[in-house]
Write a structure and sequence with these properties.
Strands 9, 10, 11, 12 and 13 form a five-stranded mixed beta sheet that branches. The protein has a four-stranded parallel beta sheet with strand order 6-5-7-8. It has a two-stranded antiparallel sheet with strand order 1-2. The protein contains twelve helices and 13 strands. It is α/β, with parallel strands linked by helices. The two termini are about 35 Å apart. The N terminus is likely disordered. Strand 9 and strand 10 form a beta hairpin. Helix 6 runs parallel beside helix 12 and helix 11 crosses helix 12. The radius of gyration is 20 Å and the shape is elongated. The protein folds into two domains: about 150 residues, 3-Layer(aba) Sandwich (Rossmann fold), CATH 3.40.50.1980; about 120 residues, 3-Layer(aba) Sandwich (Rossmann fold), CATH 3.40.50. Helices cover about 35% and strands about 15% of the residues.
Length: about 300
C-alpha cells in the first residue's frame, strides 16, 4: 500500500511505502560510456538505452539532484513540480508530480530518457507511448548508492557514480562519528498530524539511528506507519521532530511528554526538511540536520 503523505509525498515528491521490503532499484550492466546498455528498474522491468541520453526528464526531486551530482544537469530538459535543487532546476519546464504527469507536454519535449518513481502510476502510460522510462527510488540509505550506480550506467557516467558513492559514504561516516559520543535520545519523527510517522527501517529512520536517536515507533508497524497517539504518549520521546512545539503541546496527554517539557520539539525548516526526506546525494546534510536537533552539543 502506498501513502500519499501530505507533509512529505505531496510537497517533496516522495512516495512512502507503508510496509514491506524495499524494491530493488536494479543493477547496472555497463561500463563508462558503453551503449546500448540494459538495467533493471524498481518495477522489475529491463530498460534498454540504445545510445547515451542527451534529453533527460526527471520526475522525482532526488533523481534531479542525482543528475546534477553526476555532472549531467545540462542534459535535463524537464523536471517534476517539486524539483528545486540545484536552483537551475526551478527554471526548467514543470512536467507534473509523483501522481500526475503532463503527458502531452512530456511527449512534446521528445526525451530519450525519463527517470520516474517506481510508485508513479504514470509509468505504464509513458512506457506505452514509446518512451524509455526507468522507474525506481531509494528506500534505504544503501539504496542511494545503488540508484546512483544505475543512473550512472543509464547516462554513461559510471565513474562519476562511483566517485559520488564514495563521497556520500565518507561524508555520512564523518557526521555519524560526530554523534557517537553523545547520549542516545528517544525520538519521534512525525510526517503529518494524522499522525503518520517515520519507522526505524525507512531511510529516514536509518538516518535517525546514525544521528544517535532511538526511534520510539516499533519497526513492525512499517516504514511510514499511521500510529496511535497513545503509543507515542506511552513511549515518552525525548525529542520530537516534524511538528511545532505549540501544536504538539495541545494534544491530549502529550503536554507531559519529556520532549514537550524540555522544549525539544522541532518543526524543520523547508531547506532542512528537503535534505532529510530526499534520499539523494545530500544525505549527509540531512544527517547533519538530525544530529543538530538531537544533540546540539555534538553537531558538526
Amino acid at each position: 500500500m502506498l501513502l500519499s503523505v501530505a507533509a512529505c509525498g505531496r510537497t517533496d515528491g516522495v512516495a512512502l511505502a507503508a510496509s514491506g521490503p524495499p524494491p530493488d532499484p536494479g543493477g547496472a550492466q555497463s561500463t563508462e560510456g558503453s551503449f546500448p546498455t540494459s538495467v533493471v528498474d524498481g518495477l522489475g522491468r529491463t530498460v534498454t538505452i540504445a545510445r547515451e541520453p542527451r534529453r533527460i526528464v526527471s520526475l522525482l526531486p532526488s533523481h534531479t539532484e542525482m543528475l546534477f551530482a553526476l555532472g549531467a544537469f545540462d542534459r535535463v530538459i524537464g523536471v517534476d513540480d517539486f524539483s528545486d535543487y540545484p536552483p537551475e532546476a526551478t527554471k526548467l519546464p514543470r512536467l507534473g508530480d509523483l501522481y500526475t504527469v503532463r503527458t502531452e507536454l512530456l511527449l512534446s519535449s521528445k526525451p530519450d530518457l525519463v527517470l520516474a518513481s517506481d510508485f508513479s502510476p504514470g509509468v505504464p502510460t509513458m512506457a506505452g507511448a514509446g518512451l524509455a522510462v526507468w522507474a525506481g527510488s531509494p528506500t534505504t540509505v544503501e539504496d542511494v548508492c545503488r540508484v546512483a550506480t544505475t543512473l550512472g550506467a543509464l547516462i554513461g557516467r559510471t565513474a562519476a557514480a562511483r566517485a559520488l558513492c564514495e563521497r556520500v559514504d565518507r561524508d555520512i561516516l564523518a557526521v555519524e562519528q560526530s554523534a557517537r559520543s553523545a547520549t542516545r535520545k528517544r525520538v519521534y519523527y512525525e510526517l503529518d498530524a494524522t499522525p503518520y510517522a517515520v519507522g526505524p527501517r525507512s531511510f529516514i529512520g536509518e538516518l535517525l539511528a546514525k544521528a544517535g536517536g532511538d526511534n520510539v515507533v516499533p519497526a513492525e508497524l512499517g516504514d511510514f506507519p499511521k500510529v496511535s497517539p497513545e503509543l507515542i504518549a506511552a513511549a515518552d520521546p525525548e525529542v520530537i521532530l516534524g511538528a511545532p512545539l505549540e501544536e504538539i503541546a495541545r494534544r491530549p496527554g502529550w503536554e507531559h511528554l519529556t520532549a514537550v517539557q524540555t522544549k525539544r520539539v522541532f518543526a524543520l525548516a523547508p531547506e532542512e526538511r528537503a535534505v532529510v526526506v530526499r534520499p539523494g546525494p545530500r544525505l549527509a546534510e540531512g544527517l547533519s540536520v538530525l544530529v543538530r536537533k538531537l544533540h546540539a552539543e555534538a553537531a558538526p
